[in-house]
Amino acid sequence: MSKRESKRNYDISSKCKEILRGSVQSIEASYLSDFRSFEDLLIPKNYELIMATAHMLGDLSSSYQALVLINYKEKEIIIANSGSRYAPIKHMLLDLFGALRFALGFTPYNVQEVIKVNEMLLDSLGPLAENYTFHYTGHSIGGVIAQCGAVHMKKSLKERDQAKAISQVTAITFENPGAKALIEKLDVDNDISTNGFITINNRPNVINSWGSQCSQVFTIVPDAQPPIPSTYIGRVFKKLKQFSSKNYVFSYFTNVFQLAEMGLSQLQKDHALERFKEVCIEERGSYLDQSGVTASYAEMFELPILADGFITEFD
Question: Is the pLDDT of residue 199 over 60?
């Protein structure tokens, strides 16, 4: 390997680590219920907070919580979407209602909220929008909202004759339950590519296996994550899950059996953002591709679907 190739791989890996770390940090901050102490927010280096959506909501039909961060020097914007929250109770109930709508195949109300954020950003930036990179990120149902927001941004840039900026729209999501069906509804003309999208999940569970993904999927392997405990009842439900997945009549019960197999307590641990902090920020773990082979940062981000997004500056 030449010195130039070695430096390029190092640069790519460094940039990928920075992007993953920044994504997880941004999402963690988006979960906070009180944005009054902005100085306490742990946000990526060189980014400034320009919007906290909790301050602009007036419609209780949704409970959209996200942060918009900007790096003026690099001309990069991060739109970080939180997943379902457990407090306060009003937001928890609204979040659960949104998740239920998604599970039943309906569009979550929060998709309309991220579209409002997009329109505010584009109206503010005007023709300068084509000079910016828009990074969408989210955890759990927030990952679905992030991908829908990214697709809408691509469509909006195209409609505003800023099509050259489409390749500058990316999405990294974590524990995404699968947004393919929603994106097909949003992109009825099927003219928007999901290039620049990447999904990073933990080992399969009822949430991250719910629907079809619209992006390449990688799996984290945290060093500190123990194997799922084997119990008699768990083995019974595993057999039922395998049976139902192969029989159309019983296929609707597959997710129920999968949840019962793992157990609610284990699901909460596996699904939590803490697991992604271990791997993406603390670097205590590894990544697997869809074949179960260990993937490097360069392999994750140099895939064709991402070549026009994250790493063009290293070409």
Answer: yes
DSSP state at residue 35: -
Are the CB atoms for 28 and 277 separated by under 8 Å? yes
- E-state strands within 53-163: 66-71, 76-81, 133-139
Q: Which two tokens stand for residue 281?
A: 């920020």
Collapsing DSSP to helix, strand or coil, 169 comes out as strand
Query: Measuring CA to CA, how many Å separate 212 from each of 24, 94, 95, 179?
Result: 23, 24, 21, 7
Range 3-226+276-314: architecture per CATH: 3-Layer(aba) Sandwich (3.40)
Distances in Å between the alpha carbon of 225 and those of 202, 209, 222, 267, 271?
A: 10, 19, 5, 12, 12
pLDDT tens digit sequence for 36-89: 555 556 778 888 888 888 655 545 455 788 999 999 998 999 999 999 887 677
Query: What mean pLDDT comes out for the span 242-265?
Result: 58
Determine the pLDDT at residue 87.
Answer: 65
**Can you tell me the mean pLDDT for 269-296?**
91
Q: CB within 8 A of 148, min separation 6: which ones?
A: 111, 114, 179, 182, 183, 186
For the entire predicted model, the pTM comes to: 0.85
Classify burial at 26, counting beta carbons within 10 Å of its beta carbon; exposed 0-12, middle 13-18, buried 19 or more.
buried
Residue 199, H or E segment: strand 197-201
Q: What DSSP character marks residue 164?
A: G
What was the pLDDT predicted at 278? 93
Q: Is the pLDDT of residue 9 over 70?
A: no
The dihedral through the CA atoms of 278, 194, 288, 264 has a sign that is positive
Instruction: Return the pLDDT at 218.
Output: 94
Place of tokens 């840039």: 157
Burial class (CB in 10 A: 0-12, 13-18, 19+), 129: buried
Strand partners for 219: 201, 288
Q: Where are the domains positioned within the chain?
A: 3-226+276-314
